[in-house]
Structure to design on (685 residues):
């Protein structure tokens, strides 16, 4: 087992309970990635990282999601499907931009076919750097997003 | 030898075609024939048919600035030769039309649709001239790979709608799926026409992740182009960057040090191992064989860790440089690799045992998603998918690069062309990869790991083929100043997507994810 993952995971589990009182549902959206980021999102569920045990679920529909984890620079052809996915996600919702592409367009920045990052299209709560980010970095990013969610909740009450 | 064989191709041309060849030159193992645009199709058809030469790539260049015309390039690979025939034809000055090759050479289909989108050249007589990459909301008259189209032009969206093939009949209904899927996979749209349970038609609609990679590359200096090549299809970083580097090295006639060739081979096979183990685990997952899937993904994670341990990157990024590799493999790295592989091999065999003895799994994979040999040849399918349908083709053996000509390996083949055959071929390929790494580590000579590559002559063209985990991929570059003037990239997936439309026919919709997984094609590599 990977110590780093374990430590982050325990913290995550506590946060998820605090903020949601249950588990956190994540919907992944590939908005034009090179598929490298998907390799790592898929690694999150293998027996080593196994994020399910920390209360994180990758779900099949945006309608069940608390959080959108978006990869890729947002291609022109994925802008609309990304917006539709966002609109189908119930409030309150968080958007996490994962990887250099999702942050700024990355290596594809400035091309006719991309929109240079997720925040050109949706409000982004947390950015996870890396190309692709390692699994531990993704977990860390999700943790930061939960912290923000907690803050937001605190302000409302 | 090769030169002789290529010369013979020219000599053996029937007189009516021979007279149409304006020039014939041999450069390395590439026979370059220049012909008129009206004779392109007949010349290509002749070589394609007589020498059983599949289409390696077909693309255009915009030479209006220098020669007032567009040009088309058709590259064919005659069977049994480590050689290529490139046919070059210029369109008439200011003309934007050419006669479609597709009616004669079936596999030209998507290439021509791509040329139509990206260059605005009309393929007359093409059976299906709908847009391939640029969407219905893309305005007419804007063609990104033309030289007068700036990289950052983002034309406004227009109103438009894509027309799917309509299949009609009693009880026939349509199921649209995607572009955003339920699982963590790339986006694409699948439209099934179903009669009762069986699928009677599938239309795959891609292009959602088109990022303009060829255009970006044409304004990116070579040294940085490697990073872009690594991000064409992220899980095939080494395969694409090796092809890119080899192409640039060929342009400069540079010799890569032997040690670097061995290191590249190790990296290419490490990439194959984690990809194919991932595919095999995915097949287990989609047959609801959870134990197999969990074990498989664990092995994949180990492979990714080994990658990181050796290169600092789980996806083996930044391994290649033009002229060799960036980092040497130390004696320590060698030991680490060998001991990690010993464990991986044993556990892999356990996984295989588990899978091939599970009757519930076999029940799902046998006879599912069949692709006949005939269809695989007709569509020019590549890689493990082709080999599982009985096609005997592997770039590593047929057009050796890196250190492959100094190593021993088998090219596993199947016959049935079903999900089972694809699984078995992938299993056997992982075994060959283990052996290739052992041999490469054993036989690796000492010496430098890179050479300085300078003076890449503008106007030259070169090409490189690499056997990626998904099959044959191609990079073709016409050199400009310090960067490609034209960079054509063809991922293995581009050849295989249409085969999936065939393989699903007669299967039930719930088997589609399984068939899809057994192909495991790249969307990003296809859409560019
Ligand atoms: S951030 Fe890197 S790995 Fe992720 S999609 Fe972009 S290029 Fe690929």
């Amino acid at each position: 087992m990977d110590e780093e993952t374990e430590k982050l995971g325990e913290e995550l589990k506590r946060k998820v309970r605090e903020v949601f009182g249950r588990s956190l549902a994540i919907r992944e959206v590939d908005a034009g990635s090179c598929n490298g980021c998907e390799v790592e999102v898929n690694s999150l569920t293998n027996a080593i990282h196994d994020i399910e045990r920390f209360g994180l679920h990758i779900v099949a529909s945006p309608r069940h999601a608390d959080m959108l984890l978006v990869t890729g620079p947002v291609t022109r052809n994925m802008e609309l499907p990304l917006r539709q996915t966002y609109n189908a996600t119930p409030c309150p919702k968080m958007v996490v931009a994962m990887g250099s592409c999702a942050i700024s367009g990355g290596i594809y920045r400035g091309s006719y076919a991309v929109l240079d990052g997720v925040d050109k299209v949706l409000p982004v709560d947390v950015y996870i750097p890396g190309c692709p980010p390692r699994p531990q970095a993704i977990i860390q990013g999700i943790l930061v997003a939960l912290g923000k969610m907690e803050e937001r909740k605190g302000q409302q009450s | 030898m090769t030169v002789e064989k290529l010369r013979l191709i020219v000599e053996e041309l029937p007189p009516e075609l021979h007279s149409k060849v304006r020039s014939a030159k041999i450069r390395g193992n590439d026979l370059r024939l220049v012909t008129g645009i009206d004779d392109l199709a007949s010349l290509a058809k002749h070589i394609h048919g007589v020498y059983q030469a599949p289409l390696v790539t077909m693309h255009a260049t915009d030479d209006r600035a220098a020669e007032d015309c567009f040009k088309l390039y058709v590259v064919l690979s005659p069977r049994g030769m480590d050689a290529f025939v490139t046919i070059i034809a210029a369109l008439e000055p200011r003309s934007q039309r050419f006669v479609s090759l597709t009616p004669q050479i079936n596999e030209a289909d998507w290439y021509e649709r791509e040329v139509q989108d990206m260059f605005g050249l009309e393929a007359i007589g093409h059976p299906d001239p709908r847009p391939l990459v640029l969407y219905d909301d893309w305005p007419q008259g804007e063609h990104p790979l033309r030289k007068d189209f700036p990289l950052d032009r983002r034309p406004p969206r227009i109103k438009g709608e894509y027309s799917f093939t309509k299949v009609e009949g009693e009880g026939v209904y349509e199921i649209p799926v995607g572009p955003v899927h339920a699982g963590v996979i790339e986006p694409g749209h699948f439209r099934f026409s179903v009669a009762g349970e069986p699928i009677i038609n599938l239309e795959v609609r891609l292009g959602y992740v088109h990022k303009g990679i060829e255009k970006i590359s044409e304004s990116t200096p070579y040294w940085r182009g490697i990073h872009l090549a690594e991000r064409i299809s992220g899980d095939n970083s080494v395969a694409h960057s090796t092809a890119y580097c080899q192409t640039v090295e060929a342009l400069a006639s540079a010799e890569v040090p032997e040690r670097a060739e061995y290191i590249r081979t190790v990296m290419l096979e490490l990439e194959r191992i984690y990809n194919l183990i991932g595919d095999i685990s995915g097949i287990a997952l989609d047959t609801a064989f959870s134990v197999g899937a969990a074990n498989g993904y664990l092995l994949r994670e180990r492979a990714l860790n080994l990658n990181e341990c050796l290169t600092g990157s789980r996806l083996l990024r930044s391994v290649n440089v033009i002229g060799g590799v960036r980092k040497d493999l130390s004696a320590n790295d060698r030991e680490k690799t060998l001991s990690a592989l010993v464990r991986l091999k044993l556990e892999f065999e356990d996984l295989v045992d588990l899978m091939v003895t599970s009757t519930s799994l076999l029940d799902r994979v046998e006879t599912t998603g069949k692709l006949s040999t005939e269809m695989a040849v007709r569509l020019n399918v590549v890689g493990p998918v082709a080999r599982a349908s009985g096609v005997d083709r592997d770039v590593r053996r047929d057009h050796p690069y890196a250190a492959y000509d100094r190593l021993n390996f088998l090219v596993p083949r199947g016959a049935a062309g079903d999900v089972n055959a694809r699984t078995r071929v992938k299993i056997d390929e992982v075994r060959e990869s283990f052996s290739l790494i052992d041999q490469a580590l054993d036989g690796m000579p000492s010496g430098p790991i890179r050479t300085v590559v300078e003076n890449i002559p503008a106007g030259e063209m070169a090409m490189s083929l690499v056997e990626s985990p998904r099959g044959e991929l191609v990079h073709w570059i016409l050199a400009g100043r310090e960067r490609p003037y034209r960079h054509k990239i063809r991922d293995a997936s581009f050849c295989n997507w249409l085969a999936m439309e065939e393989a699903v026919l007669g299967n039930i919709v719930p088997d589609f994810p399984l068939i899809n997984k057994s192909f495991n094609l790249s969307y990003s590599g296809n859409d560019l």
